[in-house]
Design brief:
Layout lengths: L1 H50 L4 H4 L5 H12 L4 H36 L11 H13 L2 H12 L3 H25 L4 H8 L4 H35 L7 H11 L4 H34 L1
């Protein structure tokens, strides 16, 4: 009995010492990782500051000067704000249209790529890596890079923005859609296959009804993101309210009231669509999990 007790105590001590050694190793690895992170941050900041001619610390004191000038001029001309909002409303609608069309095209492309790149559902299983790498490339290239290339080829306007955002949206949604489709029940697909249904019919009738709430939820999320992206692309000549904001900011004093009106329009639109989209996404997600 005594030997058993001593053996039990010895095993507990061994387990405890092994556990403490593991905890110490984790702390050591965590400390080393933190030090590396801090070193990279410091070195990266020094490199960026050197490329900026060392002007970061000199200019940080003036970081609030530009917003203060915009706000002061906008307050002086606050009576003109409603008229300016009406003036730039068409540019805002163009930005929303760019985001909406891009989301529709990108969602369609993402659905096709996801089904072709999902194990158990793909039309050509051997080509799954090809479709997955293709979607990786599509989402790896930023929209602004694609838009700059297209603007050089096609000229300025909303078309390059639509194409650029659609490409990036299709690649991003293909990844998320594929993860959802992998968890779909394959029994309806097998039943349709036994009746002689084509691959497109099996996907449309057997998979899409299962994953539609999640797909729509992700598409609404991308629509929010695409509104911001379409506004940013306006700075490089892709049209929309971003183009008007760039012109107002580039003009400088005298048109800061216009920049403030555009900021109000853009901020209000993003908040509005964010709230609407979040509400419907929550409903869709709850319905999918019910």
């Amino acid at each position: 009995m005594t030997d058993a007790t001593l053996g039990s105590a010895s095993s507990v001590d061994t387990i405890q010492s092994a556990y403490m050694a593991q905890v110490q190793r984790r702390r050591l690895y965590g400390g080393i990782t933190l030090l590396l992170f801090v070193a990279l941050m410091v070195s990266g900041f020094n490199i960026a500051d050197a490329r900026n001619a060392g002007g970061f610390w000199d200019g940080i004191a003036n970081i609030g000067a530009y917003p203060a000038d915009v706000l002061s001029e906008a307050w002086e001309k606050r009576a003109d704000l409603p008229a300016l909002i009406v003036k730039y409303a068409p540019a805002l609608m163009e930005t929303i249209n760019i985001a909406a069309v891009s989301t529709l095209i990108g969602t369609a492309g993402g659905i096709i790529l996801s089904l072709l790149g999902t194990r158990g559902l793909a039309r050509w299983p051997r080509l799954i890596p090809v479709f997955r790498r293709f979607s990786d490339i599509m989402r790896a290239v930023p929209e602004i890079v694609i838009a700059l290339v297209l603007i050089f080829v096609l000229g300025g306007g909303p078309i390059p923005a639509v194409i650029a955002i659609s490409i990036h949206t299709a690649g991003a949604l293909a990844k998320m859609f594929s993860e959802v489709a992998e968890n779909a029940d394959l029994k309806p697909v097998e039943g349709l296959a036994s009746t002689g249904a084509t691959w497109a019919q099996r996907m449309w009738l057997g998979i899409i009804p299962q994953v539609a709430p999640n797909y729509l939820s992700y598409a609404l999320l991308r629509f929010e993101i695409n509104i911001r992206a379409s506004a940013i692309l306006g700075f490089v000549g892709a049209g929309g309210i971003g183009y008007e904001l760039r012109n107002a900011m580039a003009w400088g004093p005298g048109r800061f009231d216009e920049a403030a009106a555009i900021f109000v329009l853009l901020f209000g639109t993003i908040v509005l669509f964010d709230q609407i989209s979040s509400r419907y996404r929550n409903r869709l997600t709850e319905g999918a999990n019910a």
